[in-house]
Write a structure and sequence with these properties.
The structure is a homodimer.
Chain A: H1 9-19, E1 26-35, E2 44-57, E3 60-64, H2 72-80, E4 86-92, H3 103-118, E5 125-129, H4 139-151, H5 159-164, E6 173-179, E7 182-189, E8 202-209, H6 213-226, E9 242-251, H7 256-276, E10 284-292, H8 295-306, H9 309-316, H10 322-336, E11 346-349, E12 352-356, E13 359-360, H11 364-376, E14 404-409, E15 415-422, H12 426-434
C-alpha cells in the first residue's frame, strides 16, 4: 500500500492495462443495449459482461452476502456451488434483480441462453446483477443480446469487463499477481451505493494456477475475511455482494501457500480500491487494532471507529479529533465487552500518541503534525457546490494510496486486526440524497 | 406525538415556559463566566447550572453511559448512587471533563464548593459536564463563581436551567406531566455531537411525587429503555450520557403505575425532542417493528434501519427508497439472526405497503403518495450553502412533530419495538466536518 501514484486518468488507465492480461483458459466479452424498464417512462442502458472458462472447470469458489434478502443471482449462486462445473459468468449492471417479480426465473432464462450459445450446461453459468432494486430483469432483451456478446469474447484483457460491470464507480478496478508460470487477476465493482439504490460489491477473480476446488474454497474464505470483510464505506451491506474465484487449472501450482498469499494480496488491494473509490470518499482511513483479547474484538473495535459518523466527519474536515476516536472505541467495548479492562488503552494517529494512561496528550505542536498527516492523505480538494448545492468530486482516479493511520492498542492481549474505511463528506450526501432515484 | 405545531421561536418559547414550573422542593440557578482554557490561546464562556432539592432526598435515581471511557462526572455519579442523600446537581457546559488531567479531583473540588455554599454533604452533590473533551475543568474559576450561582436560585421555573445546559442544541427542551397534586418536569440537552467534539445527552427530571428510592430506580430504568435507549442520531454514544431523576417527596403519590406512566411519557417526549433537535436533522424517522420473535430483535431491526446511512440520505432527499429499508432489515437479520425466516416480512411507509411476499409493490402513483408523506414530515427547507459551501439550518425551533413512519412486520412472532432516528443531511456534515474544533 501507499506505493502507487497517478497524475492523470490516462496514466492510471495505462497501469490498469498492464495488470489486466487474462490468465490462460479465460475469455472476456462485453456488449450493451438500450431498453425500456416497465417501472419508468424513460429508456435505460444496460451493460452485459461475459467471462468464460474453456473447458468448464470444477475448480471454483464463491462467497455471497449474508443479507437476509439476497438478490436472485445470489440465491442461484449458492445452488451453483454444488454443481460439478462452472464455464461462464454473466453479469449485468443497471438492475440488481432483488425483490423483483420472477427474479430467479428470469436469471435462469438468461443463463440458459448463454449456455446454449457456448454449448455448455445451463447450470454451469453463474449470473450476477447490480443496479436498481425492485425492477424486473429484462430477460428477453438480454437473451437477444447474447449472440453479439459471445462474439466480442477475446482472450487478451479483462479490462473491458472491469469497465462494463461498473455502475456509479468512478473508475475500473483491476489487480493481479504472478504465481510461478500462472497468474491471478481480479476485477471489482462497488462504490458504496449504486445507481443510486444499493451498495453492491461484485468481485471476479480468475486464475490459471491449478488449485483443487476444496483448496480454492478454503483460500477464498480466508482471503475474504481479511479483505472484503475488513472494509466499510457506509456500514450497509448489499443484498447482492458476491466474490467469485475460478481456476482454469492450465498452469501448475508451485506452492499452495504462495497461491494463498497472492490471492490475499489481490483481494486486499481490490478491497482498498473499492474504499478509495467509495462514493464521495476524500480520505481512506486505516485502523489497526492491537493488544486485543482476540481477533473478533480487534475487528469490532476497528469497525466501530471507521463506522462512527463523528470520526468520519472529523476526518473529512482534516480535524484530528481524538475524542471521537476514543468515544468510538469506548462505545464498542462498553456495550459489547464490558468485562474488558481498557485502562491500558493507547491511541496514535499518524504515529503520534494522542491518548495514553487515561489522559489525552495534546498540545498545539502535535495538533499541527496530526493535521498535516490528515491533509497528506486527502485524495482531492472539494470543488465548491453547484447552484443547487450539489457537490461533485473533481477527480475520476485515485491520485495516491495514502491513508489516515489510526492505531488503537487495547493493552489487554495479543490479537490484532486492520480495517479500512472512509470519511463522510458533502460529496457522499450529494451522491445519495441530492439525486433522486 | 404529532400534536404540537409552532409558527415561531417565540410561540414555542411561550409553550416551554408553560411547561417549566418547578415541582415543590426544588430550586434552579444559572450563571456564566469567561475563562482561558490551558489548551488554546483564546477565551471561552462556560454556563453553570445548579438544581437543588431542599432538604436533600434519599429518593433519586440515575442511569449512565455504557461507554468504556466515561467522563469523570459519570465515574463520580456511579459512586453517588450508593450515597444516602442527594441535595444538588451542578452542571457545566463547554468542557466535558473526559480524558482530562485530574478529572475526578477537579469535579470533586467543585462539588465541595457547592456543598459548602448550601451547607450539605459534598457527596450529596452530583456533577455533570458536557462540551469539549480532553480539556481540563477550570475548577478554580468554577469555585469562584459558585456564590453568585447560588444567589440566582429561584423556585419558579426550570426553563433557565434548560437553556443554560445547552451547547450546540438549537433550542431548550422541557417536558412535564401532572400526577395527582404533584408534577414531573424534565429538561434535556443533546443534539448529536457537541461543541463540536462529542455527542452528549444530559437529562434531569425533577418530581415532587413521593416515590421510594427503589421504585424510582425501577421506573427510571424501564422508562429509559423505551425512550433514550430507543433513539439514535448518529449511532455514536457519548462518554457522558446521563439521566437523573430526583423526588423531593413533597406530594403524595396517588398510584405508582400512574407515576411510571407519566415518567415514561416525559422521557419519550424528551427523547423525541432530542432527535428533532439533532444536528442537521430535517426529518425524524419513526421505525416500528412488529411480528418479531422478541423485543431485542425488534429493536435491533429498528436501529439497523435508522442507523443506515443509505436510508438516512434517502429520507433527507425525500426519496421513498424502499430498497434501502429492505437492505437495512436484511443486513441485521442475515448477520445477527440468520436462523430467522424472513419470507413473511412486509414493509410499509406512511401506511402504504411497499414490500410483501418477497416482492416490491411499486408504481408511479404510490411513489407520489410516499414522497408526499416524506415531504410533509420535513422540518424545514434547506437554505443554500454560504460561499464556503457551509449549510446552516434556517430554523431554531421545531415547527411540528411529524415523523416519517416506517413499519416493518417481520411476520415471525408477537414482539414489537419503536425507535426514533433522523436523516443525514448537508447540515449535519457542515456541523461536524466544516467547522474546526
Amino acid at each position: 500500500m501507499g506505493q502507487l501514484t497517478f497524475h492523470s486518468e490516462t496514466e492510471r488507465h495505462e497501469w490498469l492495462r498492464s495488470q489486466a492480461d487474462l490468465p490462460a483458459g479465460f475469455k472476456a466479452g462485453v456488449t450493451s443495449f438500450t431498453f425500456k424498464p416497465r417501472e419508468m417512462n424513460t429508456t435505460a442502458r444496460m451493460n452485459l459482461t461475459l467471462l468464460t472458462c474453456d473447458p468448464p472447470t470444477e475448480k471454483f469458489a464463491a462467497v455471497f452476502t449474508r443479507n437476509a434478502f439476497p438478490g436472485a443471482p445470489v440465491t442461484i449462486g449458492r445452488e451453483r456451488l454444488k454443481e460439478k462445473k462452472l464455464g461462464a459468468v454473466l453479469v449485468n449492471n443497471k438492475i440488481s434483480n432483488v425483490g423483483a417479480p420472477d427474479g430467479v426465473k428470469n436469471a435462469e432464462t438468461v443463463c440458459a441462453a448463454v449456455a446454449a450459445a457456448l454449448g455448455i450446461d445451463p447450470r454451469a453459468v453463474l449470473p450476477g446483477s447490480t443496479g436498481v432494486i425492485g425492477w424486473r430483469l429484462p430477460a428477453e432483451e438480454i437473451v437477444a443480446a447474447v449472440p453479439a456478446l459471445v462474439k466480442t469474447c477475446q482472450d487478451q484483457s479483462v479490462l473491458p469487463a472491469a469497465e462494463a460491470i461498473m455502475t456509479t464507480d468512478l473508475y475500473p478496478k483491476v489487480r493481479s499477481v504472478t504465481i510461478g508460470d500462472g497468474r491471478i487477476v481480479g476485477i471489482a465493482k462497488g462504490a458504496g451505493m449504486i445507481e443510486p439504490n444499493l451498495a453492491t460489491m461484485l468481485v471476479y477473480i480468475l486464475t490459471d494456477v491449478d488449485v483443487s476446488r476444496n483448496d480454492l474454497r478454503d483460500c477464498l474464505a480466508r482471503a475474504v475475511e481479511e479483505s472484503f470483510n475488513a472494509i466499510s464505506i457506509d456500514s450497509d451491506q448489499s443484498t447482492s455482494d458476491t466474490v467469485v474465484l475460478i481456476s482454469s487449472g492450465k498452469a501448475p501450482c508451485p506452492d499452495l501457500e504462495a497461491f494463498a498469499h497472492g490471492l490475499n494480496s489481490v483481494c486486499r488491494k481490490l478491497a482498498a480500491d473499492i474504499v478509495r473509490n467509495g462514493e464521495g470518499v476524500k480520505h481512506v482511513i486505516r485502523v489497526t487494532v492491537t493488544g486485543a483479547p482476540d481477533m473478533i474484538i480487534a475487528k469490532g473495535v476497528g469497525k466501530s471507529v471507521i463506522n462512527s459518523p463523528l470520526v468520519q466527519c472529523a476526518v473529512a474536515g482534516n480535524d484530528p479529533n481524538v475524542g471521537r476516536v476514543l468515544m468510538a472505541v469506548g462505545k464498542f467495548i462498553g456495550n459489547e465487552h464490558p468485562d474488558i479492562n481498557a485502562e491500558n488503552c493507547s491511541i496514535s494517529i499518524g504515529g503520534q500518541t494522542v491518548f495514553a494512561n487515561g489522559v489525552f496528550q495534546l498540545d498545539p505542536d502535535r495538533e499541527t503534525v496530526l493535521r498535516a498527516h490528515l491533509e497528506s492523505a486527502q485524495l482531492y480538494e472539494s470543488d465548491p457546490p453547484d447552484a443547487r448545492g450539489v457537490f461533485t468530486p473533481p477527480v475520476r482516479f485515485p491520485p495516491h494510496e495514502k491513508t489516515v493511520d489510526i492505531c488503537v492498542d487495547l493493552g489487554c492481549g495479543g490479537a490484532r486486526f486492520t480495517v479500512l474505511g472512509a470519511d463522510r463528506t458533502h460529496e457522499y450526501i450529494s451522491e445519495n440524497a441530492d439525486y433522486r432515484s
